[in-house]
Every structure is written in structure tokens, then in C-alpha cells.
Amino acid sequence: MRIALDAMGGDFAPGPIVAGAVEAVRELADIVVTLVGDRERIEAELSKHGDIPHDRLPIVHASQVVGMEEKPVEALRKKRDNSISVCWKLIAGGDVKAVVSAGNTGAMVASALFNAKMFLPGVRRPGIAAIFPSHKGPIVLIDVGANMNPKAEDLYQYGVMGAVYAEQILGVSDATIGLMNVGSEEEKGTELTRATHLLYQRSPLCDRFVGNVEGRDIHDGHARVIVCEGFVGNVVLKAGEGAVEFLFAELKKELGPIIAQLPPETAQTLVKGLGGLKARYEYQEFGGGPLLGIRGACIICHGSSGARAIKNAVRVAATMAEDRVGERIIRWLGETSSDRSGTEAG
């Protein structure tokens, strides 16, 4: 399995990106990670890792980088030889089966949108998914930033994509689908959410659709896939990340003096338990969010991703490609679209 990794993407690239690639090829059999970016800088980082399988870490040079703060479309047009675009060219040309980047999210999405051939047949707009923990296991929130002005049809398709990902990659059985809204009642929300609600009710997915889901209900797991527009999803994702960091910082401050007075074995058990709890909320476990609706596989990582997150992103990208998630999305869209009534898509 060949995967293109944007070695220049991320707040601290290329160091932790290259380190993650090295960990991936050491731990995962039959994986080839093509490192895309400044050859000289990548080689310098590789030299820090001793004896490595260089044949499984080939380099494709890219002379430019899209900065994290740059305007995506403008940067892509001015910097034609940027590492993100080169990654997409590799997957579009069939040289790799997946692409991973911790770089500029807008540029990652825009670069895919520029090439209509990257869309799966029947997909209107790709969406970024994020994984959240719940009482019933992991759930999928989609979209978290790819599409800020969706139509009801887009949110319907996100439900299909999210359900396929939940079942194929996360092992969820018969994933239920909910719609992010400000209340549980059908008439609540915007014109978009009301149209989407009606679309689901009249679709072949009506038995999976559990209705509206409020923000406070995300973690109860009643809906294993929650769909929303990209603006709302991104706010929920970032608010959740901030809340977790704040909570555990406060717990450390409050419990630190207490733990220091406990017997060593008890203290160690408590710290380990808290660490395991925090790990359930951290993006490093899944590496990042999949961009669903495109050919092959794509994982968009957090800008501050370390080696562990990158390694896991490579792992998930390989699993997505091997399990042919895209093929199942195409099949589901075909089956559910052909049977739907002519509801206005919004």
C-alpha cells in the first residue's frame, strides 16, 4: 500500500511528520510512505532515525509550501509546486492510494475540489469527519469544515458517508444517523435543517434516522453519525478540544496535591486511569479526520500533530484504502438516491 504524506504540512514540520512516517513503516507491514516536500530537509530528518527502510520511505520533491495562515485558493494558484498539490497529483495519477497531511486544511480540501476527477461518482461535495467518544463507542461527526454552505442533499450524503465509515472502519453495526440542531422537535432549526430532516424522513435511510440531536447529546451515542454544516461542525470540534484541555488541566491542578500524598501504587493506577480517559478524547488516536467522498483515501490531521498522530493517520488511511470505503459509499449513494422521492434538496 503506497501512501503520500505531506512532509511539510503542520505547525512543526517536517520533524514530527517524518518521525511518524518512520514509525509507520516500522510497525505496519507492506506500507510505503512517499514523503512529499523539500528533499534536503526531509533527508536531514530521516538521518536522525538511524537504520530505516529507505525503500519504503521514498521522497518526491516539492519546492513550495502552503502556510497554515495563507488563504488556500490564492496560495494554491501562486504556489503550483506546493507539497499539498503534489500529494493530490500522486493520488490522482494512481501512484498512491491515499494521502495524509497536517497542513492547511482549506488548501487540502480546495486542492481536491479543483480536480473533479477526485470526486466519487454521485458525490456533490466531500466532507471532513471527526471521531468523538460516546457511552456506546465512537461516533462520527460530519462535516467539520469542508463545506460551509451545504444544501440538504449534501447533509443527506454526509449521513451515508459517515455511516459507511462508522461501519467499515470503526466497527459500528447498523449506524444510526442524527441531525445536529438546536432542539429535538422537527420544526426547530433553520430552513436547511428542516429541509434535511424531511429529506431523511422520506428516504430509504428513514429507519436509521433518529431525528435532531442537540450538542449536549453528542456523547450519549444515540446517533452514531451526526451530520451538520461545516461551520457548525468545526465550532463543535474546536470547542470540544478546548473543553477537554481545560478540564484535564483543572483536574491536574486539583488532584496533583492529592495524588502526591497517595501510596505510589495507588497514585500510579489513578494517573494511568486519567491518562486512558484523556486518550479517548485525543485526536492522536485516530490520527485525524477522513475527507470522505473522494477517490482513494485522505486523512487531514491536526496542525500540531506529533509522530504518534501521523503514524495513526497513515494506519487509518491504509485501512480505508484496503477496505474500499469509497466503493461502498458509491453503492450506498446509488441505492438510496434512486429510491428517494423528489423532495426539494434545499
How many strand elements?
Answer: 11
CATH class category name of the domain at 1-118: Alpha Beta
pLDDT < 50 stretches: 341-346
Order of helices and strands: EHEHEHHEHEEHEHEEHHEEHH
CATH topology-level fold name of the domain at 1-118 = Isopropylmalate Dehydrogenase
Shape: globular
**C-alpha-based Rg, rounded:** 21 Å
* Physical arrangement of strands within the biggest beta sheet: 3-2-1-4-11-10-5-6-9-7-8
**Helices and strands: which structural class?**
alpha/beta
Q: Which architecture of the domain at 1-118 per CATH?
A: 3-Layer(aba) Sandwich
Helix amount: 40-55%
Mean pLDDT: 90
Q: Could you tell me how far the N terminus lies from the C terminus, measured between alpha carbons in angstroms?
A: 40 Å
Largest sheet: 11 strands, mixed
Strand content: 5-15%
What does this structure look like?
With 346 residues, the protein is an alpha/beta fold. Among the domains are: 1-118, Isopropylmalate Dehydrogenase (3-Layer(aba) Sandwich); 242-275, no CATH class. Helix content is 44%, strand content 14%. The chain has eleven helices and eleven strands. It has helices spanning 15-27, 39-46, 72-78, 83-92, 105-113, 152-168, 191-201, 230-260, 264-279, 307-322, 325-339, and strands at residues 2-6, 32-37, 59-61, 98-101, 127-132, 139-142, 177-180, 209-213, 225-227, 289-292, 297-300. Strands 3-2-1-4-11-10-5-6-9-7-8 form an eleven-stranded mixed beta sheet, sandwiched between helices. β1 (2-6), α1 (15-27) and β2 form a beta-alpha-beta unit. It is globular and about 60 Å long. 45% of the residues are buried. Mean pLDDT is 90; it is low at 341-346.
